Amino acid sequence: MKKKLCKQVAVGLAALLAAGTLAGCGSDGNEASGNAQGSSESKQEESKSESTEESKDDAQGSGERMTISVIGIDWGYGPQPNSEMEQAWEDWFDVNLEVEWVSYNDYDQKVNSLIQAAAKDPSAMPDVIQVSKMANGSYYYPIFTQAVDAGLFVDMTPYLFNNGNGIAETNAVMKNWDDSFWAQAKHNDGIYILPRSKSEAGQNSGINVRRDLMKKYGYEEEPKTMDELKDWLIGLSNAATEGEGQKIYAMQFVDDGKNKFMGEQQIKAYAIAFVGQTDWAMDENGEFQYMQFKDEYLDFLNWMKDLYDAKVIDPEFALNNEETSKWKGGNSVSYLTAWYNWNQSADLTSNKIFDKSTPDTLEAWCLMPVQGPKAYTVCPNYTDIDSCIAINSACDEAKIAKIMEVFNGTEEATPGYDLMMSDGVEGIHYTLLEDGTKDTSGEGMGDKRQAGYVGAWNQIFLKIDADQVVGKFMRSGAKAASEECLARAKELKKFVYDNLAETGMTNETQNLQSETYNNSWQTVVDDVDSMCAQYVMGQINEQQWKDFVAERKASAEYKAIQAEFKASYEASK
Fold it and tell me: Among 14, 82, 112, 83, which residue's Cα sits nearest to residue 429?
């Protein structure tokens, strides 16, 4: 869930914090934003009032229910307050939930405004907020982190870990999370974000390929190194282009039209193979280095340039011509994406991974990661935390305990929990058929599922950890993948997990703080991706690239960022 940080609000709060207080954060000088906030909060209060009146009737006969207010992200489905799904959760946990789902377009500004208001009046912020993730994978973005430091959010460490009796030590899901995962949830020595599940590791490490073309043109021997992969891609692209009578590119690769050469994860694992690190890493001298500024990154650019010069990359990739080389459209030999996103049914049609317009003969496969000079093509996640929540420190002990109960449910503790999470309430959101399958086509069920946000409560409630091999390749009935594909998926997962465990590769600035980075990083890298594209296309030479990188590394901003990350790292030890 990549979200853009509301820069105006961030700058306003940071400036006020620098003055030594959060108390003045109710205004950032943006009156229009303030008016919008007031209007939105007024509507929220009206909704809360209506929900409270309704909850009084619900409470009769069962005692007064505790009320927990929540704000979460609506990803475009338009969930309704007090839906039947919400009521079902309330009845299950004997609680009154006041949930406001806010459009992802407005969410960051809304939450940041509530955080600002909470600096003056803690009750102005809901009891529970979903924390939005920044583009660099961190949940500890500036406004939230500054509010944490000001004491506005609960440090959940003592609730999670308590000599074997904490929630993280006893909960059926959480007890499987290791120390490295919890480290991703830490700010300094505290845990202020509560993960909702653990994602599959090393997601963007899958070299998806057209196996039908491999078989047809004699390219079934899989490449093992980056040099072999380059030759393999060029050879198969040329053979397929000639044989199919249309251009079949070596890879789906497009700039997003905004000079984001590395922005879509579609080549990052290849860069890692040459550089031996992801975005940020600490070198042998204890200094933080950015991937694209490393000397070895030029070797990766030369690898890409060889493909471009061989005319197997779309010559206009920088113009966002996505369809011309789209792998799922049948226009490319390969596509670097998630290692589990090639799930195709054994019959190739019951679950068709390719576009509907393509023939049913297209067959998907995934190569094993290949070895480069510095690493394998295994790309660690920015974070393995898929979503998370935080708790308002204005909550008393009783409410914190209730939040921990309600928001950390499991199938083991409450049988039927997982089914409710994924499918909602039987008879309202689905009909259970005799063969055990669930039918959601009943009259009004679609509307009720949408209104109840069925399937999306896992953003704020605990869910089981992702197992994409089971979820995608071991589906029931005809949609299941072939035994051969299932075996490859298991092999891929094991390799990716083992490799990450062996190398320990991660984005090493995760949760570290740098004010200069927050304020000036885009200035430092403003045209880096553009220069990458120009180099690959032969518009600048090697010396021009080296001069450009040297100038950026020598900038006061880059040096300050390195120093601040180092200081933050030292402080966190």
Answer: 83
Residue 65 contacts residue 95 (beta carbons within 8 Å): yes
**How far apart are the two ends of the chain, measured CA to CA in Å?**
29
Closest CA to 96 of 55, 35, 143: 55
Own/partner pairs, 213-222, CB within 8 angstroms, 24+ separation: 213/239, 213/240, 213/244, 213/248, 213/333, 214/365, 215/363, 216/240, 216/243, 217/243, 222/367, 222/368
- Give 195's strand partners: 388
Question: And the tokens for 481?
Answer: 């993948």
Residue 37's pLDDT is: 29
Burial 419-446 (b: 16+ CB within 10 A, else e): ebbebbbeebbbeeeeeeeeeeeeeebe
| DSSP 8-state code for residue 1 | -
Angstrom distance (rounded) from CA 281 to CA 270 = 17
Q: Whole-angstrom Cα distance, residue 385 to residue 199? A: 6
Alpha-helical runs (H) found in 177-267: 179-183, 211-216, 226-244
**What gap in Å lies between CA 491 and CA 502, rounded to an integer?**
16
The predicted pLDDT at position 318 comes to: 82
Token pair 């599959």 in the structure block, residue: 200
278 token code pair: 């992801």
Cα(131)–Cα(26) distance, integer angstroms: 20
Q: Could you give the CA distance from residue 161 to residue 508 in angstroms, rounded to a whole number? A: 25
pLDDT tens digits, 446-477: 999 999 999 999 999 999 998 999 999 998 88
pTM of the complete model: 0.83
With a CB cutoff of 8 Å and minimum separation 6, the contacts of 195 are: 177, 181, 184, 185, 385, 386, 387, 388
CB of 312 closer than 8 Å to CB of 240: no
pLDDT the model gives residue 61: 43
Residues of the chain with pLDDT under 50: 1-62
Other Cβ atoms closer than 10 A to 158: 11
User: Can you tell me the distance from the alpha carbon of 348 to that of 354, in angstroms, rounded to the nearest whole number?
Assistant: 9
As a whole number of angstroms, the distance between CA 569 and CA 558 comes to 16
Q: Are 340 and 268 in contact (CB under 8 A)?
A: no
β-partners of residue 182 are none
Can you give the pLDDT at residue 188? Answer: 87
CA dist., res. 253 & res. 267, Å (int):
8
Pairing state between β 249-251 and 332-337:
parallel
Q: Residue 57: what pLDDT?
A: 42
**In angstroms, rounded to a whole number, what is the distance separating the alpha carbons of residues 158 and 156?**
6
What is the widest separation between alpha-carbon atoms in the chain?
A: 79
Residue with structure tokens 């040459």? Answer: 274
Backbone region of residue 233 per phi and psi (left: phi > 0; alpha: psi in -120 to 50; beta: other values): alpha
Q: What ranges make up the beta strands (E) of 211-308?
A: 249-251, 280-282, 288-290
